[in-house]
Amino acid sequence: MMRRLSMPMRIWLLLMALTFGSVFIAEEMSGRQIVVAAIFLIAAVKAELVMDHYMEARHTQRHWLIMYFIWIIVVTLLLVGGHGWV
Amino acid sequence: MAELNPAGDPILEKGPGTNGIWTFVFIDMLVFLMFFLVYLSERHRVPDIFIESQHHLTPWVALLSTVALLTSSWCVAESVHATRRGDARAVIRWLSFSLLLGGVFVINKIVEYSGKISAGISPATNSFFSFYFLITGIHFLHVCAGMIFIAHCRARASQETGQGLYLKKIENTGLFWHFVDILWLFIFPLLYLTELAR
User: Fold this and answer.
1) Where are the domains of chain B?
2) Which of A6, A15, A29 sits opposite B78 (nearest CB)?
């Protein structure tokens, strides 16, 4: 059945699962620092999925791919670190 | 790219979008990186105000915005694929869905803002709400701009689908829309989820 779904739709299903998963983790799990790290890591994975599959960043010039990927890493580290993880 | 590029049109050989949109989006991303940095710096200065204020936000409202934007991004991605196939009707259909979902985000955000303002919460309330209105407000303006670009592409789809320049136009619009989506993917947990954690 998954083969009948288009690639953007499969990615959308994954993004939905990750979105609801992050809300579930934030609401139900205990251990504040781990939860905060988890929800930002999930956000980073979602951003990477959008960048890779919707923006098709891997097909653009290589320096853009590298700089956009670095942006995701820097923002994620900043947000996790800024909430007291590091 | 090969689907609409059998003749090796050079404009279509450089990957999705134009160099200009990748540059513009990256500069915008750096601006938001600065917003996040200053937000976190202020949060460290007055953590109690930020923690208390975040409890006044409603995560389920923001979750609806997230679902609307992600679904809209999917529709725009489908419209780019439809453009490469030369299927103008599908382009119009997918762009219409994406506009509708962008509209859901806009209405949801207006309802959220009006709820805050009627509860006496404004950017002057405290530093958290200054950042809340600033970050979400600038993002909101990006959404509005993206919807204008999408509406333009939708209006041109029946005449221009199949032309290389239209493909670049819709790819650029898609890149901007997905970037707006990526920003929200970080704004959502930053403002609405972190203080749900115990």
Assistant:
1) 2-196
2) A6
